[in-house]
Automatic annotation (TrEMBL):
NCBIfam families: PRK13203.1, urease_beta
InterPro entries in the cross-refs: Urease_beta-like, Urease_betasu_sf, Urease_subunit
Superkingdom as given in the UniProt entry: Bacteria
GO molecular function, a single term: urease activity
A Pfam short name: Urease_beta
Protein name, per record: Urease subunit beta
Keywords of this entry: Hydrolase
Species for this entry: Blastococcus haudaquaticus
Length: 110
């Protein structure tokens, strides 16, 4: 995709030129799918890099399977789980030393 040109032939400042096609996140990373139900009475939102096994206890899913994983979504985004709704999410392994300091929910990695 070509950008808009200024009168001097340069690209417009601040312009975003998206790539064609789909950009795959973490190519080659193993993924697991987990079915999640929000058993609470309020929505629960989980961020992209939160250790999924340590999410709000109102979320019902196989926490042992999710141990050491995070949501397979773009950095800085989140998934919202509405009360009473079941959905399937894709998880990818946490990378590096797989330590998650500072979290207070049970089941931490470190």
């Amino acid at each position: 995709m070509s950008g808009s040109l200024r009168s001097d032939g340069g690209v417009v400042p601040g312009e975003v030129l998206p790539a064609d096609g789909v950009i795959e996140t973490l190519p080659g990373a193993p993924r697991i799918e987990v079915e999640v139900t929000n058993s609470g009475d309020r929505p629960v939102q989980v961020g992209s890099h939160f250790h999924f096994a340590q999410t709000n206890r109102a979320l019902r899913f196989d926490r042992a399977a999710a141990h050491g994983h995070r949501l397979d979504i773009a950095a800085g985004t989140a998934v919202r789980f509405e009360p009473g709704i079941t959905r399937t999410v894709s998880l990818v392994p946490l990378a590096g030393a797989r330590l998650v300091p500072g979290l207070t929910a049970e089941g931490g990695l470190g």
